[in-house]
Amino acid sequence: MMTNLFSSFDPLSSIMGLSLNWTSTLLGFLFIPYLFWAMPSRWSLLWSSITSTLHKEFKVLLGTSNPGGTILFVSLFSLIVYNNFLGLLPYVFTSTSHLAMTLSWSLPLWVSFMIFGWVNHTQHMFAHLVPMGTPGALMPFMVLIETVSNMIRPGTLAVRLAANMIAGHLLLTLLGNTGPSLSSTLLIFLIGSQILLLLLESAVAIIQSYVFAVLSTLYASEVN
Fold first, then answer.
1. What is the DSSP annotation of 5-36?
2. Is 110:153 a contact under the CB 8 Å cutoff?
3. Taking the model in full, what pTM does it have?
């Protein structure tokens, strides 16, 4: 039972001896050509509207008028949301449910923000360690607390995304495994509940991608 439950998260499963699980991460790039059609589809127009809205919001968070500064975070949102939705398809490996993938996104971003901030805005970074109005006796503790909270940022970003992806997939798998033992009447309710849960997972896929991108943008804005 436990083996079947977690088999969908196993990156070592293979097809004809070839381990192709992680290549599903790149499937999102197959949708890029559709954005350049002479007559764009409704989905292309919808996606263009979403990305333009994200560009405007991220420009406000970063406090910059340069549209090039938001490309990284909009691209990050696009990559995550593509992988989250692909993971909802049957027999498609969910790479965002693994810390190896989510941490490989959050850790390099956090390290680059820290290097940029401490090299170019050292005094500003020191000021972030002690909030305004902090009593002198509490300053050493506030520095320690702020340092720890800053150090765990990449881990919280990675764990939040991976845990939310795993939780929904496990619920779908558990409900699916109970199907063969149910009667026809209960099976109808089971299918209905799975459809509702799948809609909830679709919303979670978008929300978690948005949260990851927004938090990364906020972390970048602190070092400007």
1. HHGGG-TT--BTTB--GGGGGGGGGGGGGGGG
2. yes
3. 0.84
Which secondary structure element, helix H or strand E, spans residue 111, and what is its range? helix 99-120
Domain that holds residue 21: 9-223
Which run of H or E residues covers position 157? Answer: helix 153-177
Domain count, the chain: 1
Q: Per the domain annotation, does 4 fall within a domain?
A: no
Torsion over CA: 221, 116, 149, 53 (sign):
positive
CB 188 within 8 A of CB 52: no
In a domain, 1, yes or no: no
CA angle 50, 200, 195 (to 5 degrees): 120
Closest Cα partner for 210 from 85, 86, 99, 74?
Answer: 74
**pLDDT, averaged in runs of 10, over the chain (224 residues):** 56 62 73 71 84 90 74 91 87 83 93 92 84 78 88 94 88 80 81 89 94 93 83
Give the separation between CA 208 and CA 162, rounded to whole angstroms. 9
Phi, psi angle pair for 40, to nearest 5°? -65, 145
